[in-house]
Sequence to fold (201 residues):
Amino acid sequence: MSSSARAIGSSRPGGLVVISGPSGAGKTTICNALLERLPRAMWSVSATTRAKRSGEVDGETYRFVSTETFEAMRARDEFLETAEYVGHLYGTPAEPVRRAVADGRYVILEIEVQGGMQVMRKMPDAIRIFVLPPTRATLEARLSGRATESAEQLARRLAEADGEIATARDSGCYGFFVTNDVLEDTVSEVLSIIEKETQAI
Ligand code: 5GP
Fold:
């Protein structure tokens, strides 16, 4: 077991790890690596109104809901945070997060910046990490290599990226900015941030 896994697998209380960054920065891959290495970490399944991409599983990757269902959940105050991103709604259901944290687990929230700021206000102890692409060209290449979205969607996501990075820097929300060049190095860096921060709690 790595030292990071030991730190997070101890009897310390649980908490939240927010991973944000522009679409194509590699957040999901990083989160999957974290989940593999941290035995007491778990993934928060967001609700979204966007269409399911091929390979995504309803209830695992996301809970895919209609706008009506999303709005009904929001009206019942079921979300820890919500955001609109390139025309779709996304939200973190609060109850599973609260239960898991009370149970001593670390919940990984892969969310965009507006949501990150809401989490900061509600749960200020959350570890907040922003993942940057090494260059804009890398981001463009990664996004177009995905082939899961239309050209229009890709263009919107790229346009969104610049604003997200600027907002993340200005917001003061993120204690850590990590550049995802070599995946293994990035994962190690994120693990060591989590280890240090959880020991400090
Ligand atoms: P995608 O459509 O590529 O899965 O996600 C688009 C953006 O929404 C990504 O930046 C992702 O991190 C973010 N996102 C996913 N789920 C949530 C959520 O529950 N809340 C917020 N605020 N952002 C989310």
